[in-house]
Amino acid sequence: MALSPLVPEEDSADIIVTDPIEQPLKTYALNIDVGELGGHVDGQDAVKQFIYKAIKTARFRFAIYDDDYGSELDDLIGQDVTTDLLETEVPRVIEEALIYDDRIDSVYGFELTREGDRLYVSFYVDVADETIPMEVTI
């Protein structure tokens, strides 16, 4: 038996290459409205939870998250900005917050509605073979 980490050519025929087994995407269930944590979610519910949390978390503010996580919406909201600027920047900021996740293929179809001091944003997220409609209040 050789101590070399290199496998000789004649032994390489015994190596079997298999595709990795896809693991479930289970994550803890978080009820944002009530502030409760409990149970697990998977699949589309886990993606929806990620989308909501990534949009609501301020980017660059919390040391626990890397610089890719979160959004910069708080830089826009509360500022004296025009509706035209909101209609261009909010979709860009939301897309940047979400698109780095490997599960998300595209983010599109943004509609913004302003009512008083609230901004309602609806959009679609493509994940694998599904389209997830999302609505977020900012």
Commentary on this structure:
- This protein has helices at residues 44-56, 83-98, and strands at residues 27-31, 36-41, 104-115, 118-127, 130-137.
- With 138 residues, the protein is α+β, with helices and mostly antiparallel strands.
- It has one domain: Nuclear Transport Factor 2, Chain: A.
- The strands form 2 sheets. Strands 3-4-5 form a 3-stranded antiparallel beta sheet, covered by helices on one side. Strands 1-2 form a two-stranded antiparallel sheet.
- The protein is elongated.
- The termini are far apart.
Sum up the structure in keywords.
single chain; alpha+beta; 138 residues; two-stranded antiparallel ribbon; Nuclear Transport Factor 2, Chain: A; elongated; three-stranded antiparallel β-sheet
Q: Name the strands of the widest sheet in spatial order.
A: 3-4-5
Structural class: alpha+beta
Mean of all residue-level pLDDT scores: 80
User: How many helical stretches?
Assistant: 2
**What share of the residues does DSSP label as strand, in percent?**
25-35%
CATH class: Alpha Beta
Query: Unreliable stretches, pLDDT < 50, 5 or more residues?
Result: none
Summarize the structure.
With about 140 residues, the chain is of the alpha+beta class. The protein is about 20% helix and about 30% strand. The chain has a single domain (about 25-135), classed as Nuclear Transport Factor 2, Chain: A.
